[in-house]
Amino acid sequence: MWVFGYGSLIWKVDFKYERKVVGHINGYLRRFYQHSIDHRGVPGKPGRVVTLIPSKDANSVVWGVAYKIKTEDEEEVTKHLDFREKNGYSKKTVTFHPKDKNQEAFPLTLYVATEDNESYAGPASVEDIAKQVISSQGPSGTNKEYVYNLAEAMRSITPDVYDEHLFSLEAAVQKLDPAFKNKM
Question: Which of 18, 74, 76, 85 is catalytic?
């Protein structure tokens, strides 16, 4: 069993895995279109976290990390991830393409929040999403921390890839963040 991390699973891996591989999936875009009332927000004041949306451009890619789960750990990890991703996410199987061209593509599982779930926030301007992010926090921490950690993780695993939506949102959040302004 392989699982794809494209959001917090990139930097907050809280399950057993045997191996990890950097790579991408095709035909999707990573977007902050999902409300979080269980991790980076609360009911009545949700945060924003990423999901994947189908792209009209078949050449679109989303970079992330694939984790190989040992057979004996599959049930435990699946239960854990089903609980962790409970706020509107469902499982889907897609093809993963490793960054290392010597490795073959393979199927894996990802958790995606589709438009028909109750916590789907939908599109908004980067500025509006940033305003929501800067003022939200939940049991897992502040929403801005989620944005900053994801941006940092993506720069670390794919320094040559520019994720327009993610990095534009990071910049917009930084403009509103008093802690970030004080570091300048």
Answer: 85
Query: What span, in angstroms and rounded, lies between the C-alpha atoms of 36 and 96?
Result: 26
Examine the residue annotation and report whether 74 is marked as an active-site residue of this protein: no
71-83: per-residue pLDDT in tens?
A: 999 999 999 998 8
Digit-coded pLDDT (tens) for 87-129? 778 899 999 999 999 999 999 999 999 899 999 999 999 999 9
Residue 2 bridge partners (DSSP): 68
Looking at residue 48, which CATH number applies to its domain? 3.10.490.10
The total of structural domains in the chain comes to: 1
Where in the sequence is the domain holding 27, given as residue range(s)?
A: 2-177
Does residue 152 lie in a domain region? yes
Residue 146 burial (CB count, 10 A): 29
Distance CA 47, CA 44 (A): 10
Percentages (nearest 5) of helix, strand, coil residues in the chain: 35, 35, 35
